[in-house]
Amino acid sequence: MRYWEDFKVGEVEQIGGKRVDKDEIIAFAKQYDPQPFHIDEAAAKQSMYGGLIASGWHTCAMVMRMMCDTYMLQSASVGSPGIDNLKWLKPVRPGDTIRAQRTTLETRASKSKPDIGIVNNLWEVFNQNGEMVMSMQGYGMFRRRNPGSPAT
């Protein structure tokens, strides 16, 4: 089990890998983001993207799954108060393989909840060519192994 104390400022962790499937792109977009360049290959070809692309929200969801599989489900996570600076930098296309990298930027004890610590992370997402396709910065809340002990 990974607790707040186990996250160290400056640590970098590689997170998963996921091949992006055309049918998944279309299914996600039909349900949540039905813009033509996400659901219709002919319309997407005529768009500024020149072909079908994954919704940015789909990319976020795929990265969330990679995070869960890599560390979240083996941690004392109690959720997140949110993310900042979400950027979609390049389209994610069918056949791409995305991977992520998590860098811990800051850790601090909660002022109002002595049993919780906050971790500020930067996630950078790359395609198979090493091109950054997405970045986001956000916060995770984790139970503390030693509630109320001095923050380190």
Task: Write up what this structure looks like.
With 152 residues, the chain is an alpha+beta fold. The chain has a single domain, classed as Thiol Ester Dehydrase, Chain A (Roll). The protein is 24% helix and 34% strand. It is built from 4 helices and 5 strands, in the order βααααββββ. The chain has a 5-stranded antiparallel beta sheet, covered by helices on one side. β4 (116-126) and β5 form a beta hairpin. The chain is elongated. The two termini are 19 Å apart. The model has no long low-confidence stretch (mean pLDDT 96).
Features:
single chain; 152 residues; 4 helices; 5 strands; 24% helix; elongated
| Spatial arrangement of strands, main beta sheet | 1-3-4-5-2
Question: What is the average of the pLDDT values?
Answer: 96
Q: Write the H/E string, N to C.
A: EHHHHEEEE
Kindly state the percentage of residues in helix: 10-25%
- Poorly predicted runs: none
Q: How many beta-strand elements?
A: 5
User: CATH-wise, what's the superfamily?
Assistant: Hotdog Thioesterase
Q: What's the end-to-end separation, in Å?
A: 19 Å
CATH topology: Thiol Ester Dehydrase, Chain A
Number of domains: 1
Q: Please name the CATH architecture.
A: Roll
Q: Give the amount of beta strand, in percent.
A: 25-35%
* Spatial shape: elongated
Radius of gyration: 18 Å
Instruction: Report the total helices.
Output: 4
